[in-house]
Design a protein that fits this description.
The complex is a heterodimer.
Chain A lengths: L1 H14 L6 E9 L10 E4 L2 E7 L5 E6 L3 E7 L6 E6 L4 E7 L8 H11 L5 E4 L1 H4 L11 H5 L5 E3 L7 E3 L7 E5 L2 E2 L4 E2 L4 E2 L6 E7 L13 E7 L8 E6 L3 E11 L3 E10 L1 H12 L1 E9 L2 E25 L4 E24 L2 E27 L2 E26 L2 E29 L2 E26 L6 E8 L3 E15 L4 E14 L2 E15 L4 E12 L1 E4 L10 E4 L7 E14 L3 E18 L14 H8 E17 L4 E16 L8 E2 L6 E10 L4 E10 L3 E2 L4 E6 L14 E6 L6 E2 L3 E13 L3 E10 L9 E6 L12 E6 L5 E10 L3
Parallel strand pairs in A: 1-7, 11-16
Antiparallel strand pairs in A: 1-4, 2-3, 2-5, 5-6, 8-15, 9-10, 11-12, 13-14, 15-16, 17-18, 17-49, 18-19, 19-21, 20-21, 21-22, 22-23, 23-24, 24-25, 25-26, 26-27, 26-28, 28-29, 29-30, 30-31, 31-34, 32-33, 34-35, 35-36, 36-37, 37-38, 37-39, 39-40, 40-45, 41-44, 42-43, 45-46, 46-49, 47-48
Chain B lengths: L1 H16 L2 E4 L11 E8 L5 E6 L8 H4 L5 E6 L2 E5 L1 E3 L14 E3 L10 E7 L2 E7 L8 E5 L17 E12 L7 E7 L35 H4 L11 H4 L1 E4 L7 E12 L7 E11 L1 H16 L17 E2 L2 E14 L10
Parallel strand pairs in B: 2-16, 2-17
Antiparallel strand pairs in B: 2-3, 3-7, 4-5, 4-8, 6-7, 8-9, 10-11, 11-14, 12-13, 12-15, 15-17
Classes of the chains: A mainly beta, B mainly beta.
């Protein structure tokens, strides 16, 4: 609390020193689409001291001490725009800039963002670059690109889970237009829910978190959807191996109201359907003896699909007001059906089995942007986020005979999820050129649905009363309000020294227990030279939501549960130090070291898992007794070398990391490596534009082996079945495994080479692009799962009695292609 | 065209075949076997210690784990008492499996002492300590005060009859110490290849009753079960024991109801039944061992659960060395006069 008081005094004192000058404020927009530009640089061309960037809504405010000024507006991929202004009063502008592919202004933007900014451990992901990278199944995936960044590690082979600086997948605050997304997985984690066709901007924070973000321990991934084209109708279609998507955007009323709709669906089920029909049906008949004839017709069906839909409407109320309505809806479903119809001895005999598993997210936001005056911007948002998961099982068996009808019918449904209803308001105030102040508040009402099952049985037997059971069991909903306020100031103390300091105070209430967490944050930057800066940061974070997940695979059945008086909130603090260097105006080099301590992190106790049956101490009722809390520690160093401009671009990232966990009840109380502790992690990404129409992409990744717990020894348990004696010395024994320490073995290193080429051509109605790719080009066996096998299972093995560890890869060399067509804007 | 089809087929086969690879992680040259020591001893009895060694997974057999040249020493309160004697009986009458060798003390272990077992073998030394927990002071087991049993009898598809009835059990828990309990309740039976109590295995009252010989318990004391005790289930005898700690009733008289059931084809022919019950006090180590072995049994082979390490308290080796104390008694129950219990 003391730290926060000091920070507050510093904030007030520093603001009081500003002087009155001219203020230029407004928005930067793409001239062709009207899309607002995030992170655009506005600066005094004669004095780079006066510089600012647009916020996440394209708003900027620059205070200058003179009335005659030449300002430059710069953004990667766009022509630099210069404006000569003669200021009589404070001025509000909307500045349009034009997209131009071959430019070098990237240097200025990069310099500002990477070297001059007080923010560290932040990476902006260029969406246009993502689309040129090699992909699996021809489906561009945002999270797979994030996995190529330093400090970010992938989870299981091929999946989209990310682990930032030794943290867990639940410790990432993933925001879509400011709304938390609780499950980002499609297709059991192989793809993320983010459709890149609808995304404008992605920012990743790994540390040095600004006070405006909170609620998770390890990272913030802020994904902004496109606003929609204000000027022209634009559309594109993309057809991949397993999914297709269509996007259309344009003005509802030109320069006033725009929309964007982007939809995506897989067609694995449709591709598989003819094969299932071909092989899934069977008819058979015969003589069962005693003159009884039987005949049956069996049919199998099943499949999997996912779909998602992004939509957004943007409306300009006035030059100072904008309204946004954004929506995301997505669902995954896997299903199976078996049906058998026939007769036995002339009596009908039928059976039906149906099973389905579904999960998805529903997200919506209504937002109002308003610039009150030249230097105060406010964003007010109402959001709703829902994650749902459900399993349905139905079985009907009907058997008729001479006595009458025998019928059994079972119906089981299970559902779980989380709902968030939230409101937040964020102010962005630029009192003078030395300060950018943000403050705000948020309120979230969480509703946890930990698992509710309904179960019905209907049994009918000849000459017997009908046996009916219809019951619902499981846990009740849990409600938890969460409030937070924050303030931060990005303060240029001198030309060389800049700090971003602030604090966040959050409050969480559940079951009459209230938690309050003050979270101080500070980042500093010292310019060592024009192109080199030294940065350091400290951030304390609190997480009120626990994620109950099994340890080996990621499934939607994993549960979000609130902190309680028994399982208290998770906390972390992280400090980092780094150097940011712009070399030869071409290469951005960042070196960072970090240390993160995590407290109260949650893990299942030994022998416990998410698969507990409601009603027998199901998760919802007793989850607090199935988990344990402990500590985590992560530290390491990251190197990130980027070249963003020119025909030849890309990056190299290297992470040296350690991540350990310690729980009183696990591993005999001794620390053990986290399951995604990875000593070395390397990503090399190269992109080359051969000409306007052809570009190449190449990715190579390497990661040290994942630690797993494998049996070390086997031993005999050598006494009677009751455990304390043997009968007449007749003792039996059974073989038991000895594992020793948790995560005692490291699987072989992970490495993979991917390659892609995009070939585009202008057509009469637009531009088409063929993308060809090769995933895991040299077919390395990267384990997805492992099991022990006896040597005799491999007929080439000279030692058939030996036990081997078999590594299974689900993605050998995988060619892919996709087709995209972008219609000309109308 | 045919050539392309063949080439494509070969490519697909190679691709599928290349989706896995085997790695040799158990190299015999690098493997270091560990001494395995197992000994669970009741108060006022001799000590029996099983000494073997661990092996590479998949290589377990009588011969591979055998150690016959171990030196096993017994210490009482740190004072050397004796070297234990190697016992290796070749076969047991009527059984296929040969007896497992063990080391036996002549010395009687008693309450209020700490015993140390020290084993030297395969150029290693392993030690473990144990002592005996206090015997439970008061135990009462009574048919629940009701006068009629819940004889919700019915025949299942195996023509077995089931008899369900509740039993009240009361334990006086000592204060100032952490206590762990294990309760077994059973009937004597005709013939069963394994049972929990050796001395009564053939001492059968109902010689023609083919019962399972054990009682199942409902989750009637869920508060306790979910604190630390495993849920009695599965097909392992030690799961049929009811194991719990005194976390929620420390220092108090603890009463609960066990919902017992017995099954058997000839159950309808009896009108009286004798229940035998043992109330053990077990050491912390033994409790942890039973809990871990139960967890292991419940989760073995489950890919969604981290492997469970079976509890070991042997320093320099693996295994469990522990002591227990036991209250043993019986209870005769007259069955109500109904279709099952009236001897018809």
């Amino acid at each position: 609390m003391k730290k926060i008081s000091i920070l507050s005094i510093l904030l007030i004192f520093s603001i009081a020193t500003f002087s009155q000058n001219y203020t230029i404020s407004g928005y930067i927009e793409d001239v062709t689409s009207g899309e607002r530009i995030i992170g655009g640089v506005v600066l005094d061309a004669d004095n780079s001291k006066y510089v600012t960037t647009t916020n996440e809504f394209g708003f900027f405010s620059l205070k200058v001490p003179k009335n005659k000024i030449k300002i430059q507006v710069i953004y990667i991929g766009y022509q630099t725009k210069e404006l000569n202004l003669l200021l009589k009063n404070d001025t509000t502008l909307t500045i349009n800039i034009e997209f131009q592919n071959e430019i070098d202004e990237v240097v200025v933007t990069q310099s500002y963002k990477d070297v001059e900014s007080s923010q560290m451990s932040r990476i902006d992901i260029p969406i246009s670059k993502i689309k040129n990278l090699p992909v699996i199944f021809g489906e561009v995936d945002l999270f797979k690109t994030l996995q190529l960044m330093p400090g970010v590690q992938s989870g299981t082979e091929g999946t989209s889970g990310i682990y930032v600086r030794g943290g867990g997948p639940d410790q990432n605050l993933i925001l879509l237009d400011g709304v938390p997304v609780y499950n980002v997985s499609h297709m059991f984690g192989f793809f993320s829910v983010f459709n890149t066709a609808a995304i404008k901007n992605v920012t990743l924070f790994k540390g040095g978190f600004p006070a405006r973000y909170g609620g998770r321990l390890s990272s913030v991934i802020d994904v902004q959807m496109k606003d929609g084209n204000m000027k022209n109708i634009a559309s594109e279609v993309s057809i991949g191996l397993i999914a297709s998507k269509f996007t259309i955007e344009g003005p509802i009323k030109k320069d006033k109201t725009s929309f964007i709709i982007s939809a995506r669906r897989t067609y694995i089920d449709l591709i598989a359907m003819p094969f299932i029909k071909m092989f899934g049906n069977e008819e058979y008949s015969g003589d069962a003896g005693s003159g009884q004839q039987y005949s049956y017709k069996d049919s199998f069906g099943g499949g999997y699909y996912f779909y998602d839909l992004n939509a957004k409407i943007t409306h300009k109320l006035t030059d100072k007001d904008r309204l946004f309505f954004s929506f995301y809806g997505g669902k995954d479903k896997a299903y199976f059906k078996y049906k058998s119809e026939g007769e036995y001895g002339g009596y009908p005999n039928n059976e039906v089995n149906e099973f389905s598993l579904g999960w998805g997210n529903l997200i919506s936001a209504a937002r109002w942007n308003h610039s009150f005056k030249k230097n105060l911007f406010v964003n007010t948002t109402l959001t709703y986020s829902r994650f749902f998961f459900g399993v349905d099982f139905f079985q009907n068996y009907e058997d008729n005979n001479i006595d009458g009808k025998y019928m059994e019918e079972y119906n089981i449904n299970y559902s779980s999820g989380i709902d968030d209803l939230a409101a937040n308001v964020n102010f962005n105030w630029l009192p003078n050129v030395n300060h950018t102040i943000r403050f705000g508040a948020s309120a979230i009402y969480h509703t946890f649905r930990p698992g509710l099952a309904s179960f019905s049985i209907n049994i009918e037997e000849p000459n017997m009363p009908i046996n009916k059971t219809d019951t619902t069991f499981g846990s009740n909903q849990l409600y938890a309000p969460e409030f937070s306020i924050y303030a931060e100031d990005d303060f240029s103390i001198t030309k060389r020294i800049k700090i971003n300091y602030g604090a966040r105070i959050s409050l969480f209430n559940v079951r009459d227990t209230t938690f309050i967490s003050p979270e101080p944050r500070i980042s500093t930057r010292i310019l060592l030279s024009k192109n080199v800066s030294l940065k350091a940061s400290y951030a304390k974070m609190t997480q009120y939501l626990h994620f109950l997940s099994n340890n080996t695979v990621g499934l939607p059945i994993d549960l979000w549960m609130p902190a309680t008086n028994i399982i208290v909130p998770e906390k972390s603090w992280q400090s980092a130090i780094g150097l940011s260097w712009l070399l030869n105006n071409q290469y951005s080099i960042s070196v960072e070291g970090f240390y993160k301590k995590m407290d109260n992190i949650v893990e299942f106790k030994e022998g416990e898992s998410i698969f507990s049956i409601p009603g027998e101490g199901g998760m919802g009722e007793v989850w607090e007794q199935k988990v344990t809390q402990g500590t985590g520690e992560a530290y390491g160093a990251e190197i990130f070398i980027q070249k963003k401009s020119g025909d030849f671009s890309g990056w190299v990232s290297y992470t040296l990391g350690w991540s350990n966990r310690s729980f009183e009840n696990i591993n005999f109380g001794q620390p053990f490596p986290y399951k995604y502790d990875r000593r070395h992690d390397i990503s090399i990404v190269l992109m080359y534009n051969l000409n306007k129409n052809i570009n190449f992409g190449l990715t190579w990744v390497y990661g040290s082996g994942t630690p797993v717990t494998l049996q070390k020894d086997e031993y005999g348990r050598y006494f009677g079945y009751n455990g304390y004696s043997c009968y007449n010395d007749n003792c039996t024994y059974e073989g038991y495994p000895y594992y020793g320490k948790r995560n005692n073995y490291r699987l072989p290193a992970y490495h993979r080479l991917d390659f892609s080429v995009n070939i585009s051509k202008d057509k009469k109605r637009g531009r088409r692009t063929w993308s060809l790719g090769l995933y895991n080009a040299y077919n390395n066996i990267n384990p997805f799962y492992t099991k022990f096998v006896n040597g005799r299972e491999n007929f080439n093995n000279p030692e058939p009695n030996k036990t081997y560890l078999r590594l299974y890869s689900i993605f050998p060399v995988m060619p892919s292609f996709s087709y995209k067509f972008v219609w000309k804007k109308r | 065209m045919k050539k392309y089809i063949i080439l494509s087929a070969i490519s697909i086969v190679m691709l599928i075949a290349s989706c896995h690879k085997d790695i040799d992680i158990y190299n015999a040259d690098d493997f270091n076997a560990q001494i395995v020591v197992n000994s669970i001893t009741g108060v006022d009895s001799t000590i029996k210690v099983f000494v073997t060694k661990s092996v590479i997974p998949g290589q377990l057999s009588d011969s591979t784990i055998k150690i016959n040249n171990a030196i096993v020493k017994l210490y009482e309160d740190g004072i050397f008492k004796e070297n234990l004697t190697y016992v290796n009986l070749p076969f047991n009458l009527g059984y296929e499996n040969p007896s497992k060798p063990y080391f036996k003390s002549n010395y009687i272990a008693s309450q209020n002492h700490t015993y140390t077992i020290e084993v030297e073998a395969i150029e290693q030394k392993a030690t473990a300590e144990f002592s005996f927990p206090t015997r439970v002071s008061t135990v009462e087991l009574l048919p629940k005060e009701c006068t009629s049993f819940d004889t919700s009898e019915y025949m299942n598809s195996y023509c077995d009859y089931y008899l369900n009835f509740p039993l009240d059990i009361t334990i006086n828990d000592p204060e100032d110490e952490k206590n762990y309990y294990m309760i077994n309740v059973f009937v004597k039976r005709y013939d069963f290849a394994y049972d929990t109590i050796q001395e009564i295995l053939y001492d059968t009252i109902y010689s023609d009753i083919n019962v399972n010989g054990w009682l199942g318990f409902d989750n009637t004391i869920t508060d306790v079960q979910y604190v630390n005790a495993p849920i009695p289930s599965s097909d392992k005898p030690w799961d049929r024991s009811y194991i719990f700690n005194d976390e929620v009733f420390n220092g108090q008289e603890f009463s609960t109801t066990l919902n017992a059931n017995i099954s058997g084809e000839k159950l309808k022919d009896v009108n009286e039944i004798t229940l035998y019950y043992q109330v053990f006090t077990i050491s912390t180590e033994l409790f942890n061992y039973y809990v871990s072995i139960n967890k292991y049994n419940q989760t073995s082979g489950n890919p969604f659960v981290e492997p469970v390490n079976i509890f070991s308290n042997v320093e320099g080796g693996i295994g469990i060395v522990a002591g227990y104390n036991m209250h043993y008694d019986s209870l005769q129950i007259t069955l109500p006069d109904n279709e099952i219990g009236n001897g018809k």
